[in-house]
Design brief:
Layout: E1 4-10, E2 14-20, E3 26-33, E4 45-46, H1 48-66, E5 73-80, E6 85-89, E7 99-100, H2 108-116, H3 118-128, H4 137-147, E8 155-159, H5 160-168, E9 175-177, H6 178-181, E10 187-188, E11 193-194, H7 196-202, E12 211-213, E13 216-224, E14 227-236, H8 237-244, E15 253-257, E16 261-268, E17 279-286, E18 289-298, H9 302-310, H10 320-327, E19 334-336, E20 354-356, H11 364-390, E21 396-400, H12 407-417, E22 420-424, H13 429-442, H14 447-453, E23 457-460, H15 466-483
Parallel strand pairs: 1-5, 5-14, 9-12, 15-21, 21-22
Antiparallel strand pairs: 1-2, 2-3, 4-7, 6-8, 10-11, 13-14, 15-16, 16-18, 17-18, 19-20, 22-23
Helix pairs in contact: 8-13, 9-11, 10-11, 11-12
Length: 490
Amino acid sequence: MNKYILALDQGTTSSRAILFNKKGEIIAVSQQEFTQIYPQSGWVEHDPIELLNTQLSVVEKVIRKAGINHSDIDAVGITNQRETIVVWDKHTGNPIHHALVWQDTRTANFCNEIKRDLELSNYIKDNTGLIVDSYFSASKIKWLLDQYDGDKSDLLIGTIDTWLMWKMSDRKIHATDYSNASRTMLFNIKTLQWDDRLLTFFGVNKSMLPTVNPSSYYYGDINIQSNVLPVHSAIGDQQSALFGQGCFNKGEAKNTYGTGCFMLMNTGSEIKSSSNGLLTTIAWGVNNKVEYALEGSVFIAGAAVQWLRDELQILEDAKQSEEMARKSTKDSVYVVPAFVGLGAPHWDETARGLMIGLTRDTNKNDIVKATLNALAYQTKDIFDLMEKESGVQLKELSVDGGASLNNYLMEFQASILEKVVKRSQNHESTAKGAVFMAGLSSGFWDMDALKKISNDADYINPNLKEQKVKKLYHKWKKAVQLAKGWLAED
């Protein structure tokens, strides 16, 4: 009888369920978007109950679509938006507030206060691998706890993987993995424990926090419509994509074009620190070994294309962006999509979006092209720094995510990097990584089988002259400087 691995892919804008067979092929996909909640400028929330319900719904739909039974599923792998945090009452099972999303900047002022304490901010960087920023979970957790008037000993805390497993297991599993824990700014990536000093500073009792396990690991069973399914992996979405792209070896890198844009380089067992804005993070725990990665985070990538569609309404569908970009004859228009500040390597929460180079004949095609180009420029910002900080000259960049299907963007990306872009033929690398992890834990696959599955790819070569690339990129850097510090005090 055929067996399958099921991925629960809980992202920033949608919940998805994807079913994979033994060959690593996708059998069926189901996806459901959920509500984005913006109570104030810079605040971004999700309803945790809606996240749970949409995830349960797509699981049932994908099983029906594939025409299989729950018993045909060998294992479940969970991958999730990472820094987004939920706090809930362990007795009622109800969240005390909406989830605070990784994009949420309400704690930016508090984080700026921490940065002024150089000893503490250096301690955080040295022991968590992270730069003090509202992007990460710790300050969000403190904000949520500060709003709560009840008995805090009744509360549990978790990233989205933890929340889903707790609810789906009838409150039996309160756990996360190393990769998700390493994004909270509360987890010591050297000792692989919750950091007591940081827990005290942020007012978090250790009893509220989940147990931290390897990424490829039997977490326990969840119940879907009275059917028992074993969870054999949990991993943050970007680390999952690194594994799904087959970047198993030190010095291999990938870039995921999702809501944000995230580049990770596998640094193996070495904790590689950056002095220029890259993050050090845990890649995964597999086969009794923890491996690390360097990461550069762009906050707005695919979300910029959504902005073109939903706010400016110059696109009806994101897929139109490729055709429209090719119609543009201008290289002089630049969009800096710093809608929630700038991530690596700038880390400027006061930056805001900018459009420059407009002339009387600028049209919507030019704006679409400039927005797509911004994804490539932001990627180059990180790529160049990653090569410098790691001392590794990358021959190619593996890419995945929805926007990687845009041929114009990938051609421009290869040209602006002056490197080969390797695009997986199965662009669902995030789900695939969680599935690979689950299959390793359950015995469905071994590493030799995964290496064979992960090799199928298209290769896109640079097609612009070096002089033009330098000129285009120079103007991008000028535009970024203009966008920085926009909300800073004069």
